[in-house]
C-alpha cells in the first residue's frame, strides 16, 4: 500500500511538472510571437524605408560597411562596431545614430525620426532585439567583385576563319562590326623594324633589313619571329619588364653619401632573363621566386636560389623592416 501511495505521489508530481513546462512553453511561444510582430510592424518597415538605400546588400556602395538587411549585419555592425547589442541600449550604436547624439553620427541623414520610432527601437533592443531574418552577413563588395569579368570562367568561341592568324581574326571581326577597314599591309622594311623593336628592343642592322626584304618565302615573317624569340636579347628585353615590377636594382641607391651595392644582385637578373628565354611556365616562374630553396633544380640558368632575389632586392627604407616587407608584398 505504501508503495502504491508513493507511485501515485510521484505521478502527481510528474504531471504537475509537465503542466508547468507546457504552460511555460505556451507562454514563451506567445511572447515570442508578440516580439516578432513588434519587429515586423515597428522595426523592419523603418529599416527598409530609411536605411536600405545605403546599408543593404543591394546598395551600390555600403556606407560604413554596415548592413541592416540581415540580423547578422546588425549584430556584427560596421567600421564603428556592433549596431545592435541585444538587451543593451547604451552599447547599441544604431540608437546613438537615430537619436542624433553625435554630430558626425546621425542617421538617417535626411532628418531625425519621430520620438515614437526611437522609443520602439529602444524597446525592441531591451526585449532582446528579436529578428527573424536569417543568413550570414555577406559583404556586397565581394559579391560584386565575383561578377567582374576577370573572375568569370573562360568561354570557348568560334574563331573567324577569314584571316591568316587567330588574333587577326578577332581584331578583324570587331573592325567589321564597326565598319572600320584594317590598315594596309606595311612594307617589309617597316615590318622587320617593328618585330625587332617589339621582341628585342633593338633595331635591326642594315644587312638584316635587306635580307628580310629580299626573302620572298611565305614563311619569312614566321621565321623572323621564331628567330628573335630564340635570341638571348628577347629575355633581356622582356625580363626587364618583370625586373621593374620586382623593384630590381644593383644598388640600394644613394644613402648617406654612399651608393651601396647589392652583392650578387646580378644573379637574380640573370635568372629572370634565363627563365624568359627558356619559356618557364608562369606558375613555376612565381613559385621559384617565392620558395626556390624548397623546389628542385631547373635544367637551365644559374642556381635556382637566385630566383629568391625577388624577396631580398628592392628599396630599403633606411632599414625599416616593416616598410621593406610591405613594399615586397
Describe the structure.
Helices cover 53% and strands 3% of the residues. With 329 residues, it is mainly α. The protein has four domains: 2-145, no CATH class; 156-185, no CATH class; 186-230, no CATH class; 233-328, no CATH class. Strands 1-2 form a two-stranded antiparallel sheet. A hairpin with a 2-residue loop joins strand 1 and strand 2 (258-261).
Summarize the model shown.
By secondary structure, the chain is mostly helical. It is built from 15 helices and 2 strands.
- Strands in their spatial order, largest beta sheet: 1-2
Largest sheet: 2 strands, antiparallel
Output the structural class. mainly alpha
Q: Strand fraction band?
A: under 5%
Mean pLDDT: 84
Shape: elongated
Overall strand count:
2
The domain count comes to 4
Alpha-carbon Rg, integer = 36 Å
Which helices and strands appear, and what pairs or packs with what?
Elements (H helix, E strand, L loop, with lengths): L1 H49 L1 H4 L15 H6 L16 H6 L16 H12 L13 H7 L19 H12 L10 H12 L6 H9 L5 H10 L2 H14 L5 E5 L2 E4 L3 H13 L4 H10 L17 H4 L8 H8 L1
Helix pairs in contact: 1-5, 8-9, 8-10, 11-12
